[in-house]
Amino acid sequence: MLKILVTDPISEQGLQELYSSGEFEIIEKIGISPADLLQTIGDFDALLVRSQTKVTKEVIDAGKRLRVIGRAGVGVDNIDVRAATKAGILVINAPDGNTITTAEFTFSMMLALARHIPQAHASLHEGKWERTRFTGVELRGKTLGIVGFGRIGTEVAKRAQAFGMQVIAYDPFLTSARAEKMGVQVATLEETIQVADFITVHTPLTKETRHLISDREFSVMKRGVKILNCARGGIIDEAALLRALEEGIVAGAALDVYEEEPAIANPLLSYAQVIATPHLGASTVEAQVNVAVDVAGGLVKILRGESYPHTVNLPALTPETRKKVEPFVQLGEILGSMAAQTIRGGVQQVQIRYEGEPAQQPADAMTRSILKGVLSHFYREEVHLISATLIAEEMGVEVIETKQPRHGTYANLIEVRLSGDQGTVAVAGTVVPGHGMRIVQIDQYSVDIAPSEAMVLTWHRDQPGVIGHVGGILGEAGVNIASMQVGRQEAGGQAIMMLGVDREVDEAHLKKIRDTIGMDRVLYVELPTS
Ligand SMILES: NC(=O)c1ccc[n+]([C@@H]2O[C@H](COP(=O)([O-])OP(=O)(O)OC[C@H]3O[C@@H](n4cnc5c(N)ncnc54)[C@H](O)[C@@H]3O)[C@@H](O)[C@H]2O)c1
Ligand SMILES: O=C(O)CC[C@@H](O)C(=O)O
User: What are φ and ψ of residue 479, in 5° steps?
Assistant: First the structure.
């Protein structure tokens, strides 16, 4: 009989899904210590957790029989998904079940912030009757700035509108049409935070969103702004928030999540204007039932060999297909990543053209890989092959694939063209047998360069001295140039330079390159080459 281990408190209804199937042996070891988990996990086929259990690489390595890990909730930050994927263990979650609960929680925090309810409560418990000290503000007529307009951000907006607030939102995937339908003003991050009386963040925590709200952002906010984070610790830079509170820019902050949890010794907790809860956003009876029922049902399906939509990892390729498409799967992710880092603004459409050899293969794995490369720069969690298509659908990103027999210079070619609110970008590449991958086109420029993990891209006017000057700056930064390619349409016209470099280039030296005469744009990009 297959064995399922449950290590976090999971709602009774969720567990019932498992017990009632009668097909599995279920062992509940709630609050198991990390050492005991390592000892125990080897006997189990499935593990069901919430957010307390840390499913580390060591746990995954010790789980010799493990086939699936179920997370009752959205975030899988407590699971080493990469290690699970590598080990062929499927990770599943339940992203829909706690949306309303978390939106309601955010709104409770906003009301508490506006009316100083936690502070007044504490004061009365101390035997004080302080009526004037806790004069608040109405929400009606105030502007709410929402950063991240996904599932939870959208539900927060609906509630704010019911309270007579104006809503302004920033999300690279929010189209004007959707915003108009919702009665929400769509804006840039800067516009959003400049005009808002209350600001709430609802993005994932990614490389792009870590410290999305920091000193520069606080400096443009209205004096007396109130700010909330019920998403993930680290989206708001906590040190910068401390400074903004000290300077009186921020009049109040409501936090449910922290850069380090448990946040017992967090210095923000000593500020009277900060109201704080211990990561309770999803903690309602209803949400816990929803996520537990969803994920337990998912575990049953996966263990029966059926499909479940909320899989976080593991590409499903037969060995034969994998061998044929693997080089193009790798190339696709690199092209998607390069295009996503090059486009200005968000992405609403991904057009993929397969030419020659890849056009003869099933496109699914290659397309997923391209989407993984693109979406990894925008999505809240790590994007995996198996979840990439679903995430694109959820984000409203249109995906168009075309296939053509070989007709150009290359025996095989993949072109990825992204379109968004601020323009388009096209990147194409090929796999040369025996020589590996080459990037052969960026927008109108023909190039020929092997993608490398770290690259510097410049768009500049073609004139003597530019290449030498940039090389000099990189030399001064101690950055070795491994490869270089210049593309131009005509002498003296616009040109692109692509440099493969041996390590990251710091912001100060990138700025120096940007200040070079004739330079239009400079980007440092990292590509998933390994
Ligand atoms: N406090 C809690 O207990 C709790 C409970 C549930 C979810 N969460 C967290 O809330 C957050 C939102 O969850 P969700 O279900 O709404 O996710 P979602 O994926 O539906 O929405 C996230 C949105 O953020 C947007 N986004 C991504 N990068 C961005 C950027 N750089 N700038 C602006 N927007 C960006 C995405 O386009 C997307 O629309 C997640 O971090 C999730 O882990 C917390
Ligand atoms: O209460 C929990 O399990 C955390 C929930 C939340 O942060 C999530 O990501 O779903």
Answer: -105, 125
